[in-house]
Structures are given as C-alpha cells and as structure tokens.
UniProtKB/TrEMBL annotation:
This is Alanine racemase N-terminal domain-containing protein. GO terms for molecular function: alanine racemase activity; pyridoxal phosphate binding. The keyword Isomerase applies. It holds the Pfam family Ala_racemase_N. Residues 346-381 are annotated as: Disordered. Residues 355-381 have a biased composition (Low complexity). It comes from Pseudonocardia hydrocarbonoxydans.
Amino acid sequence: MTAPRIDTDLGKIEQNTRILVDRLARVGIRVTGVTKAVLGSPGVAAAMLRGGACGLGDSRVPNLARLSAPLRTLIRTPMLSQAGRVVDVADVSLNTGPTVLAALDHAASRTGRAHGVVLMIELGDLREGIAPDDAPEAVRAVLGHPWLRLAGLGANLACQNGVVPDDRNMGVLSALVEHVEARHGISLDVVSGGNSANLSWALSTGHVGRVDELRLGEAILLGVDPLHRTPIPGLHTDASTVVAEVIEVAVKPARPWGDRAQAAFGDAPARTGTGPVHQAILALGRQDVDPDGLRPPEGVTVLGTSSDHLVVDLGDHLVEVGDEMGFGVGYGAFLRAMTSPFVRKVEHPGRPAQGSRARTSSGSGPPGSITTTASSKPASA
C-alpha cells in the first residue's frame, strides 16, 4: 500500500466516542465531536455520531461543508469575509465581536434562516473570548439582531497558555449564564465548557454547574488527556498510525565529521556514541509530519529529520529497503500528517464491539511497528 500514509481505525474512534459520551452523560454533559484534525473526514465524523456525539464541530468552513450532522458548529470565530458561507454550512458559530455578528445577521437575513450564536467568554487562557464584565453588552447585541439566535455561552481553556479548567473558572461561566438568563428572561440551549482538556475536571468535580456540553477532538481521536498527554483509562490510544517506507539501510558512523554549521531546520540534534549505527532512512519528513510527535517501534530511535527524510537507528531490527515502519502519534504529528497533501489517509472500518478492551499505554500513545518484506525478527535471533 502507498506510503507515507496514516491508517485510522474507525471502530476505535467510535468506541472512544461512546465511552466518553457515556461517562459525561452521567454528569449531564453531552459531546460535540470535533473533526478539525482530520480535515472534516466524513468517515471519522460518522464514527463520532455512531458513538453518540450530539453534533459535529470544526474550525474550518470547507470542512463543515463536507459534513452531515444534526448540528454543525463552527468552533472558530468566523472570518468577516466568510460570513455568508458560515450561515450556509453551520447551524451555530462561536463568536466574540460585534462586527462579525452584524455580518452574520445580514447574511442570515438573505437566507431567511436564523443563525445560532454562542458567545465565548474569556476565562484566563487569553485566546478568544469576551471579558465577563462585557458579556451583558454582547448579549444585548446578539438579541438585537433579528436573524441571530443566542444559543448559549461558551469558553475555551488550555489551548493557548495551558490554563487548567477548574471549579473557579468554570464557576464564573455558570454564574454568568444564570445572570444572563435571569436578566433577559431567556433559557440558553448550550453552555459549552471547553475542549478535551475539560475532561478531568468534568469527571471529577461533582460541580459541573451549568456546563452541559464539551467539544472533544483529541480525547476521541488519540485517547489522551491534553493537559498532560496521558492515556485516558479505557480508551484506544492507537486508533491512528503514521506509516512510512524505508528507502535506505546502511551502517554509518555514530557521529558526523567535518566543520559544522546549522542544519536545514536550525541546530542539528547531537549524536552520541562511538560505534557504528545500523541506520535507516524513511520517506517521511517535516512536510509530512511533526517528528517530535512520532513514537517509533520499540528498539528504534529517531536520529533526525529534514523536509523529506526521517533518519532512525534500527537497533537490532532487520529491515530492508521497501519495508514499512509504523509510528504512534501525538497530537502535533497527527494534525500535520492529516493535513499534509503528501500523506495518504486510509480509514478502516474496524470493529467497535461493545465490551472489547481498548488498548492503552503508559506513555502518551503506543509505539509503532515494523512490517518487512521478509522478517522483522531481531538480528540477534
């Protein structure tokens, strides 16, 4: 099969979704499945919906246009230039500013269909959001637009500066919801507490307040908690694997020689050791993947990478040109591989059988694997 590619098991995506949906339902929170890391893949989206997600969210308008769901949410503040397209493809969008709100109202009036708005509140992570003290004015602005519907309030933490969701900042959001509803005599449909980084708080606090929805991507796709990149118990951490083909195998010195300056991407990593290295080059580079997020097979060490080459120490593995090597992925590696035009995306139906045991690991994901044309047994065997 053509490489490089990223193989995704849709059955594991479905099962991860179902497990999280069931756990969060116990505390009154529903799940919006986020597809931005997979370019709005209809296959992944369908797996999330089968797993119980109430709707789908994406940060890119073209991705949302590919999706079919009971509720489609644009999870990034709309670009002013895309207001018309946003009301065509999204039922709801997350918003912060009056200029865009006015444009959405105008665009919605031309379609004859009201557009839902979730106002985002700044709770300390300093990305998008309205200051809590300014929220009443923003609410009045939305209610003053005839073709906008105030669907709810929301927040986002941990993405920009790593601020952890907790009872204090989530309590601010809940209190603001109560204030808005009482002041305007309305009932909000959604209180969107945040992303996968909210899971630990939501499942342990006992005080979720008015938060009734989370936007989950990384937790479903990779099975890890974004706050510490640790596996979430019971979830699959191996739903996706990046696969590359070996294009050179050679025994080379442990260290480079000659005068040295910067390498293609700055200072080259230090290479240590004194003996020869059983080295391989794979057709996989920074145009394809973030190498810092790759987890190689056990016994294999990543030595360096350039635009188009990944160099590894094979250790004791017997590998030949034409063999394939699979890598576990962290979020950065996963995102870049999924969005690279040079990486083929392959989805497998898998088996989401209820009760099957998910594979987890002690790190942030499982190591990769080696598929050889002959044998992958260690050289010492």
